[in-house]
Structures are given as C-alpha cells and as structure tokens.
Amino acid sequence: MIKIGIVGGTGYTGVELLRILAVHPEVEVKCITSRSEAGMPVADMYPNLRGYFDLVFSVPDPTVLAGCDLVFFATPHGVAMRMIPELMAAGVRVVDLSADYRLKDLDTWAQWYGMPHETPDWVAKAVYGLPEVAREEIRQAQLVANPGCYPTAVQLGFLPLLEAGLVDSARLIADAKSGASGAGRQGKIGMLHGEVGESFKAYGASGHRHLPEIRQGLSAAAGREVGITFVPHLVPMVRGIEATLYAELNDVADFERLQSLFETRYQDEPFVDVMPFGSHPETRSVRGANQCRMALHRQEQSNMVIVSSVIDNLVKGAAGQAVQNMNIMFGLDEAMGLNAPALLP
Ligand SMILES: NC(=O)C1=CN([C@@H]2O[C@H](COP(=O)(O)OP(=O)(O)OC[C@H]3O[C@@H](n4cnc5c(N)ncnc54)[C@H](OP(=O)(O)O)[C@@H]3O)[C@@H](O)[C@H]2O)C=CC1
Ligand SMILES: CC(=O)N[C@@H](CCC(=O)OP(=O)(O)O)C(=O)O
Fold first, then answer.
1. Whole-model pTM?
2. Ligand 1 geometric centre to CA of 76 (Å)
3. Topology at the third CATH level for domain 150-313
4. Which fold, 2-125?
5. Which of 20, 75, 79 to mutate to test the pocket of ligand 1 (most atoms within 8 A of CB)?
6. Could you tell me where in the chain the CATH 3.40.50.720 domains are found?
7. What residues are annotated to the active site?
8. Most buried among 96, 210, 218, 251, by the most CB within 10 A?
9. Which part of the chain has CATH 3.30.360.10?
10. CA 151 to CA 160: how far, in whole Å?
11. Tell me, what's the ipTM?
12. From first to last of its 345 residues, what are the pLDDT tens digits of the chain?
C-alpha cells in the first residue's frame, strides 16, 4: 500500500482527495492536516466519509509527512514551497495542487503570486502534471505541479489545434466560466450565496494568474510564444468549468479534418472525451468525474474554430488529476480509483 499524507485536508480539494482515495485499492491515507481543526475526526467534519476513514486532523508535522510515500499539498500558494526541501531530501514524492511549481519563469511567478520563490532549484526539477502532455516525465518525477483548473480546461481544448499548427496562435481567445467551489472554502463575502446566486459576472479581465500558466503550456505546444486573451467568469453553481475557446483557422479547408484530428489526438486518453461535432458539453456531464469533455463547432461563413471544453474543477481540475498523476508516478493503472461516472442530474 502507498502511504499518503495530505496537507490542507479541510479545504475543498483536500476533502475531494479523500473522497477519491476512500475507494482507491492501493493507498492508505496516513495523515491529513489542518491547523484550525487539529484534533477533530475527519468523519465529524465530513459525514460523507463516515465509515471510510478513522483519521483525525493534525497540525502539519514534517517528520510524519517524511514517513509517507507521497504527499499531496492542497494548500494555498506559498505553503508547499516551504516544506518541499525537507520532503525531497527524505525521498518523498509530492503532488502539489497549488501553483508553487507550475510556472518555470521565477519572475513571472513572483509577479503573479506576490512573493519571491524560495526553492528555485525545485521549480526547475518539477514536472507540470498534465498527463495528456507529459506522461513519461510524470512517471519519473519526484515533484509534480498539478495544473490549475482553468488551465486544464483551456489547454486540453486548444492543444490539438496548436500541435498541428492549424490556427493563428497569436490571437487565441478563452472565455471561461467557473462555479464558486473554485475559490476554495474560506469565507469570502464575494462567495456568499447571496452574492453569487442569481448573478453572473466576469472577473480578472485585465489579467488573472492562470493567464501565464495557460500561455506557458500553449506556447510549448505551438513551439512559439502564443497570444491569448483569457477572461474568467463566476457563475451561480458549485462545481464545474466551461471554457469556450476561439481560434482562427489558417486554411478554412482544414475544417473537414478537425473532428478526426481531435479524436486521434485523444484516442488513447482515458479522461478526455471528444464528443460528436456540434455537441454542447454540459458541466453536469462531468460533475464528480475525472473527465474533460469537449466538442467542436463551426459557424456559417466563418473560419473561427469554436471548442467547448468542460471539467469538474475539483476533479479533473484538481484532486482527480492529482490522483491520476499519483497513479502514473507509482506505475499503477492510470484510471485506478477514477472510473466513476458523473453525477446526473
Ligand atoms: N478549488 C479549486 O477548484 C481548485 C483549487 N486549486 C488549488 O488547490 C489549493 C487548495 O485549494 P482549496 O482546497 O480550494 O483551498 P481551501 O481554501 O478550501 O483549503 C485550503 C487548506 O489549506 C490549509 N492551509 C491553509 N494555510 C495553510 C498553511 N499555511 N499551512 C498548512 N495548511 C494550510 C487549510 O487548513 P488550515 O488553515 O486549517 O490548516 C485548508 O485545509 C489552492 O492552492 C488552490 O489554488 C487548484 C485547482 C482547483
Ligand atoms: C471561481 C474562482 O474564484 N476560481 C479561482 C480559481 C483558482 C484556483 O483554483 O486556483 P489555482 O488553480 O491557481 O490553484 C480563481 O479565479 O481564483
């Protein structure tokens, strides 16, 4: 059994990790941390886990974490990087759900996250954990930077177009919408039901911290620096991201082969579903599931490709993808513990 530690167990992604690992046959969760709820049984806080775990939240203890085979960080930005040197030295493998190791450029990271990076060496060694792009590197990695939620939906939707060089990579547009769980569990006035319900707004239109992450991944796929406009929106639902992506085809004749291009690109991917041309993927079709569903569209008299890509931000956008990465790192079946279909309705 793989011994697991989770730092940040009371947050939305921490409890989602527990929900997935509860039925994973190859792991044993040894410790789960919370500074504010230390001493509380996990099942008292999360009754959906009654009968699955006999664990109590504890304060993060580097010695206990160093005894694990793999530690998930489900903490705010800036926490993992302070514990990484000790865990790496102890030979522990880590999947970090925060953004501490996602950006390779240290100045860009400092600019968006408002602090200098404390472990630049490990930034260079960390592997960006999008399995559909970096499966072989993930297998070998000691430290995996789990992608952000919006970056997962946006990158998967654009990748086939950029890898094949079929679109104008200087003028991509990603119009993305997220449910409120994307903002985490801490109380914030803007996330109250009374503020989010019956309303719909854009935010971060002049710049969001996921922009450099998306740009980094898509530029690697395109083989050149891409230009992208990314605008996130907050919608009155709990889980889910829908990203509507726009790109201009260089040659309109290529429309004929786009569907087969996407189907071929993702044919061996267990967690990407290319739906029939013209479909409209819904967030509820991936709720609770480690899936990205996408579909292509063309409007009359237009050379714009439209891709609609949906994920559950807490699953393929966070905890599910983190477990997928763990499975790859330990040579397990990549889909182990991740096969449950979405909850519908
Ligand atoms: N929500 C989402 O959809 C997604 C989130 N992410 C990222 O995953 C990470 C976790 O997100 P989420 O679960 O939403 O966050 P939450 O705010 O819901 O939870 C954060 C957790 O971290 C713990 N924590 C906070 N500060 C510290 C600290 N200094 N040291 C140790 N533990 C700490 C908290 O417990 P306590 O304070 O009691 O210790 C809590 O358990 C974030 O970096 C987020 O950006 C990534 C993709 C999607
Ligand atoms: C709705 C909402 O507020 N979403 C969050 C999503 C960010 C997130 O989850 O953060 P990382 O993926 O970078 O860790 C936001 O826009 O800040």
1. 0.97
2. 4
3. Dihydrodipicolinate Reductase; domain 2 (3.30.360)
4. Rossmann fold (3.40.50)
5. 75
6. 2-125
7. 149
8. 96
9. 150-313
10. 15
11. 0.97
12. 999 999 999 999 999 999 999 999 999 999 999 999 999 999 999 999 999 999 999 999 999 999 999 999 999 999 999 999 999 999 999 999 999 999 999 999 999 999 999 999 999 999 999 999 999 999 999 999 999 999 999 999 999 999 999 999 999 999 999 999 999 998 789 999 999 999 999 999 999 999 999 999 999 999 999 999 999 999 999 999 999 999 999 999 888 899 999 999 999 999 999 999 999 999 999 999 999 999 999 998 899 999 999 999 999 999 999 999 999 999 999 999 999 999 988
